[in-house]
From TrEMBL:
PANTHER family: ANTI-SIGMA-F FACTOR RSBW, ANTI-SIGMA-F FACTOR RSBW-RELATED
UniProt-listed Enzyme Commission number(s): 2.7.11.1
Protein name (record): Anti-sigma F factor
Keyword annotations from UniProtKB, A to Z: Kinase, Serine/threonine-protein kinase, Transferase
Taxonomic lineage of the native organism: Bacteria, Bacillati, Actinomycetota, Thermoleophilia, Solirubrobacterales
Source organism per UniProt: Capillimicrobium parvum
Keyword Transferase: yes
Record flagged with keyword Nucleus: no
């Protein structure tokens, strides 16, 4: 079996981009035989975090969303959400409750967060 085509999106850091990313990755997840609703929820949370926390005060920016499936013994789906914003740091004015990352961690097989440079990259693995 060959792997489906990967998804590579560069989206503006605006609310409507969440839906675009969610739909594209959910379609790929369904093609891979994964729980597309769980994957879609995780992608929604991660993209929303990138927009809200990476670019506060409606500062312009972009969010990159990449996903690729892997077949064989280590079958699954790798999703990466990356921004060039402010990185991960607490925001006292945050509109959220801080439940997004724990939710992602509970639904995915693994989550890796890198905010060591400019911006932030969240890599999520869903085992097949």
């Amino acid at each position: 079996m060959t792997a489906p085509e990967p998804v590579n999106l560069e989206l503006p850091a605006i609310a409507s981009s969440v839906r675009v990313a969610r739909q594209a990755i959910a379609t790929l997840a369904a093609t891979c035989g994964l729980d597309d609703q769980a994957v879609a929820l995780c992608v929604s949370e991660a993209v929303t975090n990138a927009i809200v926390h990476g670019y506060p005060a409606d500062r312009p920016g972009s969010v990159r969303v990449r996903a690729r499936s892997e077949v064989g013994d280590s079958a699954g789906l790798r999703v990466e959400i990356e921004d060039d914003g402010d990185g991960m740091r607490p925001r006292p004015d945050s509109p959220g409750l801080g439940l997004g990352l724990p939710l992602i961690a509970s639904m995915a097989s693994s989550v890796d967060i890198d905010s060591s440079g400019t911006g932030c990259r969240v890599s999520i693995w869903f085992a097949g």
